Automatic annotation (TrEMBL):
Signal peptide bounds: none
UniProt cross-references to SUPFAM superfamilies, sorted A to Z: Winged helix' DNA-binding domain (SSF46785)
Stored SMART domains: HTH_MARR
Cited InterPro entries: HTH_MarR-typ, WH-like_DNA-bd_sf, WH_DNA-bd_sf
The protein's name in its UniProt record: HTH marR-type domain-containing protein
Residue ranges of every copy of the HTH marR-type domain listed in the record: 43-140
Length: 158
């Protein structure tokens, strides 16, 4: 273990704290914790056929009359990969794809079953937010949310 620690230090020689996970890793750790809770809630409520890959489609905001290419771009994946997930979700009854008026394109929306999943996901994330707020204190948690909102707004304007 000491040898691997030394190797990391050598690879980041100008970093005063090469063991610091940095913001990207911290956000990923938080997202992973939320996704694990969502997965558990879905299994507990009988949605065991869904997995994390499907979250790329079922994330906020839920798809409502959206083109697959737009969903793919939002998820950071190819249109082909998105269509693969959409086909699975359509076969399982969570989304529907309907012809876009006068073209070969199709629009994606949640079915009633898909909306049940969206509501459960949202309730689960609200529960996680409450737990985290209780853990770090409401004032600090609200400051975190505010800072993230500010960073999102700055990122969308650049």
């Amino acid at each position: 273990m000491a040898a691997s620690r030394q190797a990391i230090n050598e690879r980041f020689p100008n970093d005063s704290d090469p063991d610091d996970p940095l913001i990207g890793a911290r956000l990923r750790f938080a997202l992973t914790a939320v996704e694990e809770r969502i997965e558990q809630a879905l299994r507990d409520e009988g949605f065991a056929d869904l997995n994390r890959a499907h979250f790329k489609v079922l994330r906020f905001p839920p798809p409502e009359n959206e083109r697959p290419i737009d969903l793919a771009q939002r998820a950071g994946m190819t249109k082909q990969a998105m269509n693969y997930l959409l086909a699975q979700l359509e076969d399982m009854g969570y989304v529907q794809r309907v012809a876009e008026g006068g073209s070969n394109g199709r629009l994606v929306s949640l079915t009633e079953q898909g909306w049940k999943v969206a509501k459960l996901q949202r309730a689960t994330v609200r529960a996680v937010e409450k737990e985290w707020s209780d853990l770090v204190g409401e004032k600090r948690f609200k400051a975190l949310i505010s800072a993230l909102d500010e960073l999102m707004a700055a990122g969308s304007s650049s």
